[in-house]
Design a protein that fits this description.
This protein is mostly helical and 228 residues long. It has a single domain, classed as Four Helix Bundle (Hemerythrin (Met), subunit A) (Up-down Bundle), CATH 1.20.120. Helix content is 44%, strand content 6%. The chain contains 9 helices and 3 strands. A 3-stranded antiparallel sheet has the order 1-3-2. Helix 1 packs antiparallel against helix 5, helix 1 packs parallel to helix 8 and helix 3 packs parallel to helix 5. The protein starts with 12 loop residues before the first helix and ends in a 14-residue tail after the last helix. This is DinB-like domain-containing protein. InterPro entries: DinB/YfiT-like.
Amino acid sequence: MHSNPMVVTWPDYGELYDWLRQEVDGLSDAQLDFDSQAPEQEWMWWSIRRQVSHIAWVTLVFPHRRCHMFLWPDGNIPSPINWTDHHIKTMKFDRRLDESLYWDIPTLLDKVKVGMDWLTEVVTTVPAVTLRTTESVHRGTPFWRHVIQVLPRGAWVDAQDPNLIHYTLEASLWMVYWEILAHIYTIQRLKRAQELPLRVTLPMVGYLTLPEYRGETPDAAPGFVPLR
């Protein structure tokens, strides 16, 4: 997101997909499932495979929840996944796709591609003024309170209830991009831990400007427990 609101820029979700695809290409099951559940290594709790599953979850659930009025104005919403099983209050797995159905990497990448295409459609067809004036209010988390600092505009704490956060859709679309970028960076960290070569050089922007997401501090990023 450009700091000057007169300059309209949008994330390149297709490029994100290419970076992800390159980083996981050719990895064995053992490499994809390498993780650590040690309390002090929270960044390793999700393996590469589960990082990809989370990315797929984000790219599908976010546009379904926040962009459906632009993508499917006739209400004919497609179902590449069972939506009921994947929304926050009813999901079977923690912010990941159903692992009994979506486990192998080609299947997960197919789901990522669907979501990336939806996101691309939004930023290439909906006018910028519409995305900047479409607002929503959500119960905040320590994570969201922390990461909105990277936005030059479009997110703010409610004046009456500090546990609520307002977002414009423009800001949220950039936050989705930065979140996926941070997870691809974590995939690279998991590859480094296995002494595997990296395929791409990622831009250090968005969440990656914060030390917690680059692994430069022993402190984990703030959590997702809702503020009350």
